[in-house]
């Protein structure tokens, strides 16, 4: 494990937990990214501003981090652009099929002890592990 960063990971997890809790406490909304983006794709008049602001904050945060710490975006996985696009489509399909994503189910749902979210998160993790095994070991890592 050459990229083991327990302190940074702990701080990041705490910030995500505080943010998700604040959103639920102050807005009564679950911080599930796929649901927030889906709401932008089929907007209602009173619900668009906070969703757009939330997504803009995610994008802006990523861009700022890219400027300040570009090495944080280096990954050791070599795949084609098509493989990443296909993987992204599969993640999106899974999020819609599971009625939420890892942020909604994994962060917010599990903390509320939602059995549906616990099952969804276990399914996400198991499916991801199986996909990595299949791609790296059965297909030789060549996607």
Task: Sum this structure up briefly.
This protein is an all-alpha fold.
Topology readout:
Elements: H1 6-27, H2 33-41, H3 48-68, H4 81-97, H5 102-111, H6 115-138
Helix pairs in contact: 2-3, 5-6
Architecture overview:
The protein is mainly alpha-helical and 143 residues long. It has a domain at 76-143. The protein is built from six helices and no strands. The chain has helices spanning 6-27, 33-41, 48-68, 81-97, 102-111, 115-138. The longest helix has 24 residues, at 115-138. It starts with 5 loop residues before the first helix and ends in a 5-residue tail after the last helix. The mean pLDDT is 86.
Q: What is the succession of H and E elements?
A: HHHHHH
User: Globular, elongated, flat, extended or rod-shaped: what is the shape?
Assistant: globular
Helical segment count: 6
Which strand-content bin applies to the residues?
under 5%
| Structure summary, number of beta strands | 0
Largest sheet: none
Descriptors for this entry?
mainly alpha, 143 residues
């Amino acid at each position: 494990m050459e990229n083991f960063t327990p302190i940074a990971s702990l701080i990041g997890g705490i910030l995500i937990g505080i943010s998700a809790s604040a959103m639920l406490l102050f807005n009564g909304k679950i911080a599930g990214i796929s649901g927030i983006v889906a709401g932008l794709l089929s907007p209602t008049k009173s619900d668009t501003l906070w969703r757009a602001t939330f997504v803009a904050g995610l994008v802006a945060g990523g861009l700022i981090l890219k400027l300040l710490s570009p090495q944080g975006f280096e990954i050791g996985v070599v795949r084609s652009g098509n493989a990443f696009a296909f993987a992204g489509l599969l993640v999106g399909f899974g999020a819609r099929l599971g009625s939420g994503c890892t942020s909604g189910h994994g962060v917010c749902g599990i903390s509320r002890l939602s059995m549906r979210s616990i099952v969804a998160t276990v399914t996400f993790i198991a499916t991801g592990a199986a996909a990595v095994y299949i791609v790296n070991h059965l297909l030789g890592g060549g996607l």
